[in-house]
Amino acid sequence: MKHFPLSAILFISFLFSPKSYGQKTVALSDCVDSVIIHQADSIRDQFTRQGFILLKETSVSMESQYELPIVLPLNKGEWYQFIFIGDPSSVLYEVRIYDADEKQLVYQKKSLGDADYNTISYSFIPDASQYYMIKPLQVNKKKKKMCGYVMLLKRTR
């Protein structure tokens, strides 16, 4: 099993601290975007009605054209839903997921004009219990720094 860089694991461990398991997390960045928060609330409610529980969520500061690595331990056979919400003024949004061997397993892309263009949501059922790296990215032509929002939910029924 390949290991992720210690700095990435420490950053992500801080970002998604175990104390917040199953609860809303306090944003660790100075990003507060009411439009994104409203979208997150709506999406969370929708998935909760479908039998998912919230495991982790946070607002994140992002820089245009740079991926934000998020390392998460996921269990084999569990049904997860990962959601990334980007700044509505961005023009491109991508999410990639890699296994511990750095093999890309998922790639999703949205751009201005697509339905729900600033939201990428995908289901994922891991083939192995291990750490996975999720890398959201957004491109904004007017802003260098912007907010994003990530959520991880798990199906319980």
Keywords for this structure?
single chain; 157 residues; Jelly Rolls; 4-stranded antiparallel beta sheet; 8 strands; 42% strand; disordered N terminus
Explain the layout of strands and helices.
Elements: H1 6-15, H2 34-49, E1 52-63, E2 70-74, E3 80-86, E4 92-98, E5 104-111, E6 119-124, E7 130-139, E8 145-155
Antiparallel strand pairs: 1-8, 2-7, 3-6, 3-8, 4-5, 4-7
Describe this structure in words.
The protein has 157 residues and is an alpha+beta fold. The protein is 17% helix and 42% strand. It contains 2 helices and 8 strands; from the N terminus they run ααββββββββ. The strands form 2 sheets. It has a 4-stranded antiparallel beta sheet with strand order 1-8-3-6, covered by helices on one side. The chain has a 4-stranded antiparallel beta sheet with strand order 2-7-4-5. β4 (92-98) and β5 (104-111) form a beta hairpin.
